[in-house]
Amino acid sequence: MLQSPPNDLDAFWMPFTDNRYFKANPRLLASARGMYYQTPEGREILDGTAGLWCVNAGHGRESIVEAIREQAGRLDFAPTFQLGHPLAFQLAARVGGMMPGDLDRVFFANSGSEAVDTALKIALAYHRVRGEGTRTRLIGRERGYHGTGFGGIAVGGIGPNRRTFGPGLPGSDHLPHTHDLARNAFTRGQAAHGAHLADALEGLVALHGGDTIAAVIVEPMAGSTGVLVPPIGYLERLREICTKHGILLIFDEVITAFGRIGAATAAERLGVTPDIITMAKGITNAAVPMGAVACRRGIYDAVTGAMAQAAGIELFHGYTYSAHPLACAAALATLDLYRDEALFERSRGLEAYWEAAVHGLAEGRHVIDIRNMGLVAGIEMAPREGAPGARGMEVFRRLFDTGLLVRATGDIIALSPPLIVEEAQIDTMVAALAGVLAETV
Ligand SMILES: Cc1ncc(COP(=O)(O)O)c(C=O)c1O
């Protein structure tokens, strides 16, 4: 045993977990290095999901560990309300420099959910200071995931995440999702069919009035609801319609930023520039929690400039831990690693191998679709009669027991390995999946 298992498992109310099942059948992780986790019994688990889409440079990276250690000893905490510390400004400039267009004004939060709430609030504040305070509606998309804050679930499009928690933000509405198995199953990369789905935004403009809509938020590639790849031309069309009606376009890049699809952002890779980008996860390689929101200069200038006439705080928003020194240190070390090891380029270089490998599962038992983009893949299985999600959960558990960590969303298995993955490890993942699919009824 590397570590003793805890005695009272019920003390920890686990997030997004079937607590009763887990506590009867605990699966624990005790340590991690490179591409592997180790269990308390010393079993090696190949990380097919970069933790939770976040450990992009692989586990236990020395330079990040050292930066955190050093920072903790020098400045453990500093408020960023009316005060600052140097790393916050350095990191904002670094992150801003990696964003497309003029999205180089950066606000820090501590998670993807907080980044999303921050972005939505910035959108409302921006319109208000410009005298367009009627713009209060926020538009998301079916099957969108924007975290678990009240803002995020209002624009998110996952039923179970919403229905327990009341009506959400008034006036929020949703575009249709882009998942179209009938037309697009087994497409490699972006599907040719589906750009027209963005036109639903014109429908919402006609319904609500364009001057009531503050922002549209979408994941350029939806990860958490099962790897939904944007059809060719879809994001471009959304951009056009937003611009036409003065609506801010927010890309939620909590998963896609920092190399997941072969560039700093999906916006860069796909050539569509939004007005605001949210990010988290890969920004610190997940070693310390951090979220961030990058805004176009005009948004920052409008909010800080207009209110500055009255002198005082311009945006009544922030978190005690915004730009926490440990997170800033971890993020700077992470961005150095991405640059020094050219990990975004590495991930892009692996895409063709990755695509061919995962599509090799097309004949797998139960498989009804395979989707891929960057170093991400979704393998969709037919649901069991009357038990949607059961097959996905079983595959997830069996794979863990055979030594591979994947993510199950309903009956979709998502893969998103650290960007340091080797071709042989990709083969191992695909072989493990093929074996487990064959055994699963
Ligand atoms: C696109 C997107 N937005 C927001 C979030 C929420 O991030 P967090 O869990 O850090 O709050 C996630 C998490 O997976 C996500 O994928």
Description:
This is Aspartate aminotransferase family protein. The protein is α/β, with parallel strands linked by helices and 441 residues long. It folds into two domains: 9-57 and 342-439, Aspartate Aminotransferase, domain 1 (Alpha-Beta Complex), CATH 3.90.1150.10; 65-340, 3-Layer(aba) Sandwich (Aspartate Aminotransferase, domain 2), CATH 3.40.640.10. It has helices at residues 19-24, 50-53, 62-74, 86-98, 112-129, 150-155, 159-162, 181-184, 200-208, 234-245, 266-270, 297-308, 325-340, 343-359, 390-402, 423-439, and strands at 31-33, 36-38, 44-47, 105-109, 137-141, 173-175, 213-218, 248-252, 276-279, 291-295, 367-373, 376-381, 404-405, 407-409, 412-415. The strands form three sheets. The chain has a seven-stranded mixed β-sheet with strand order 4-10-9-8-7-5-6, sandwiched between helices. A hairpin with a 2-residue loop joins strand 14 (407-409) and strand 15 (412-415). Bound molecules: pyridoxal-5'-phosphate. Pyridoxal-5'-phosphate is lined by residues 111-113, 116, 145-147, 219, 223-224, 252, 254-255, 280.
Topology:
Blueprint: H1 19-24, E1 31-33, E2 36-38, E3 44-47, H2 50-53, H3 62-74, H4 86-98, E4 105-109, H5 112-129, E5 137-141, H6 150-155, H7 159-162, E6 173-175, H8 181-184, H9 200-208, E7 213-218, H10 234-245, E8 248-252, H11 266-270, E9 276-279, E10 291-295, H12 297-308, H13 325-340, H14 343-359, E11 367-373, E12 376-381, H15 390-402, E13 404-405, E14 407-409, E15 412-415, H16 423-439
Parallel strand pairs: 3-13, 5-6, 5-7, 7-8, 8-9
Antiparallel strand pairs: 1-2, 2-3, 4-10, 9-10, 11-12, 12-15, 14-15
Helix pairs in contact: 3-13, 4-13, 5-12, 14-16, 15-16
Cofactor: pyridoxal 5'-phosphate
Family: Belongs to the class-III pyridoxal-phosphate-dependent aminotransferase family.
Pfam family, one: Aminotran_3
